[in-house]
Amino acid sequence: MGDHDAKPILVPSSIPEQRPPSSPSADDAFPTVFVPASTECEALPLLVEGIIKQKAAIEQAFHRSGAVLFRGFQVLTPSDFNDVLEALGYDNFAYRGRGNAQKMPVVGRVVTANELPLHFPIGFHNEMSYQSINPSKVAFYCNVEPPVDAGGATPIVQGHVVYERLQKEMPEFLKMIETKGLMYHRFLSNDPSGTRIDSWQAVFKACTKEDAEEMAKASDSHIEWREDDTARSCLGPRSGVKCDVKRGQRKVWFNSIGATYDSMHIISPGQDGISFGDGSPLSDDSMLACIHIMQQEQTAFKWRKGDVLFFDNLAVLHAREPSKPPRRILAALCAN
Ligand code: FE2
User: Fold this and answer.
1) What separation in Å is there between the alpha carbon of 63 and the centre of ligand 1?
2) CA of 39 to the centre of ligand 1 (A)
3) What is the distance in A from the centroid of ligand 1 to the CA of 154?
4) Helical H segments across 66-218, by residue range
5) In angstroms, what is the span from residue 329 Cα to ligand 1's centroid?
6) DSSP 275
7) For 84-124, how does the pLDDT look when each residue is reduced to its tens digit (9 = 90+)?
8) In what order do the strands lie in the sheet with 122-125?
């Protein structure tokens, strides 16, 4: 029996960018921060031990704020991050995303956060909210922190806070989202060789239109064909608002409106689109108003090497600020 059996290894702390609790009785500051109790607790084996021994306290913090940051521990390599994930004990969720948001394997269950060049922003989204099945949690790890004053934060915002703001400020728009849902669109080129990754042949691994339609149906989407055999895939309708049953049945903003807006206007104009679930258009103005609210309610803390952040993908939306190299943020998705 060592000293650590009795003393905590992780202790609660704070960072300047933390947001105050959204409801003091029920919530914690966002994100909840844990740091080493002493210098010797910084070592990775102690962090792993602490996570296992203090699981109940970590889970409670996670439940109360929806996001937890471990800071100040010696999580030096992607493999160290993998050890942290294993200690947390959540099941892995295999990435099945699309489009710009590709993730490459690194080690164990660790993947790159996003392959998109660093100078592009990625707007707010819940991970894979355009799909019918999405990960339960998302974890990020800072392997190389961005240069000072170069941006590169991973802003996060609580979905229930966004929902409450929209209820007050854009009730009619919110009602439309809640009743109609959202449809996510993507342009598909025609390339019989299947070499172009944006072709319907490559996206649906199909040689014929009939096969592509079958594959689309299996992924809960459909295809609209154009005369030149290019097409548009339509995913949905998907809910734009969900209910967080674990946190008092509160409603949460749950969609990819922010990320789709950036994709439409900055990253790949002409590729992505979004509409209400019945196909009626979503105006740029209303999308921008939502984005503005998310930005007002966000926290965008500066990454430090070794930071591990994990959050509930239902309760929290995330984004990426543009940055200059070097910056290496790695990720993992969890199924439960
Ligand atoms: Fe993401």
Assistant:
1) 21
2) 33
3) 9
4) 78-88, 159-169, 171-180, 200-203, 209-218
5) 12
6) E
7) 999 999 999 988 776 556 789 999 999 999 889 999 999 99
8) 122-125, 316-320, 156-158
